[in-house]
Queue: 3 jobs
Job 1
Amino acid sequence: MFEFIQKLSTAARGGTREVLENAVDAQSLRILSQEIYECEASLKESKLHLSNVVAEKLSIKRKLDAQKQRVANKEQEIRDTLEQGDETSALLLAEELAQLETWVKTQQQQHDQLQDYETNLLQALKRTAFTLSKYRNELNMARAVEETQKSVGKISVHANKHSHTFSRMQESLDRIKLKHENFDDKMLAMQNIESHIRGEPGSQEINKKRAEEVLARFKKSVD
């Protein structure tokens, strides 16, 4: 009994899975389109984040350049003070220079870290954008193929639906052609009769005479 219940449960799960798979297959293009849209939205957010990183890096770079100039000025000031023999003042200036150099070193490290982060993020964005472009093209192609298949399917259904009508139309056309041919035969027969009454050669006699002339021409060329 328990084994039977397990099998029923397994069958139910299988049925649910099949229903879900069929639903996914039926909406596959819509699902892919939404997935691409969400990835593109995430890519846009990443680009905004990258712009913030670049802006912060540029801000640090400006401050860093200014502080490096202060360091250079402070170094020159220390040299001038030492040349004047004022070591006490030079020592105070050296302490200020040490603090500046520590700050510059810290800012330089932050700038370099942001530069590395920018480079890595930019490469990742390029790869993502390329992949998204490929999937977007594949989606457009899949949509075009699906529309073509729908059109072909409609044409096939239409042709099958009206095949009997087309057959009747062909029969009617054949009857019309036969009627025209019969009319032409009657007209030709009447012309032959009229020609015979007037003593004129009919179409058959004319054709026979032409055939004899052609044959005579060939005999002459052979001789």
Job 2
Amino acid sequence: MPVRLKKFIGTIVLILLVVVYAVLATAYASLHLADASGWVHLLYFFFTGILWVVPAMVLIRWMETKPKG
């Protein structure tokens, strides 16, 4: 697959990943952490704010691989 096509596909998937992840993380927090203290909210959003980086790193690594040959 050409590098430009991989980067285009990866960019679209990365945008979708961030949007869907943010919506799901916020929906979960509003449903399950509504009565929790501010510290619980802080810790939850700290860890969920970092957690999306793992799939993003895998996707970016895939986007940067050169075709064989």
Job 3
Amino acid sequence: MSHAIRVQATGGPEVLGWEQVPTPEPGPGQVLIHHAAIGVNFIDLYFRSGLYKTPLPMTPGMEASGTVLRLGAGVTDFAEGDRVAYVSMPLGAYAEKRVMPADRLVKLPETISFETAAGMMMRGLTAQFLLHRTYKVSPGETILVYAAAGGVGLVMCQWAKHIGAIVIGVVSSAEKAAIARAHGADHVLLADEDIPARVRDITQGAMVPVVYDSVGRDSFAASLDCLAPLGMMVSFGNASGAVPPVDISQLAAKGSLFLTRPSLVTYTAKRAALLAGTEDLFDVVQKGLVKIEVDQTFALKDAAEAHRALESRKTTGSTILKP
């Protein structure tokens, strides 16, 4: 037997229960992992609250790192004792032990700790595809990044600066503004400012070719107004709530804009894409070009407290759970 966080009915953080569960056995093509660290992400809150639908009861979580305990039939790419990490469906990471499809795992270099891995797989791979694939940022371009002091935001600020971009970050407090600046943001705006007006001033009227918005409902309209003609609105989160239905004619009226809602699941669906993105991420982290900040650590049994901290929007960097 082992322990896991179980959700019997959707709701607030209080529905995250600490329960004893059978230790699963790996089936064909699967690996049993003993978790060392588990990532906490906004998508976990969406499943817990019912915003995203999944059968109940369920164990949340899509991201973790740990050690391979046992192999299922047909698994040849891994061995018992291997250090591994993942960010993938199916849900179930909030557990001491779990089985995962072997083709969703990556081997973790000795130079990257379990804690760093659990704090970077979701955020780092998200930053990788946002900056390199959803909209390929070029040197000299000015980009707008919301939640610039959050987990994804801090990675994006550093990585975009490495590319050679000019980064405008948006944060919710003066304390977070200092953090964003320390991680590469050239200009930092507070969320209660007139963001389009500030962007217009910074860019001397040119506006920006891309906005990366993980805030959602509270920032969506302003984000569209920050874009140059033919610009791309990348909406990839709902920290303030889901974006209401959009009148698509707005995109034409505001300059033939592009709108996308990218998902890490789609961008890493093929193993080759997962491995390529991970190689890119591990490279910039190992070279010190991107530093992963794990600023909050909770015991796995205290997952409810971790969710409350994330929902308060008072966290910075990454939040992890330790079994």
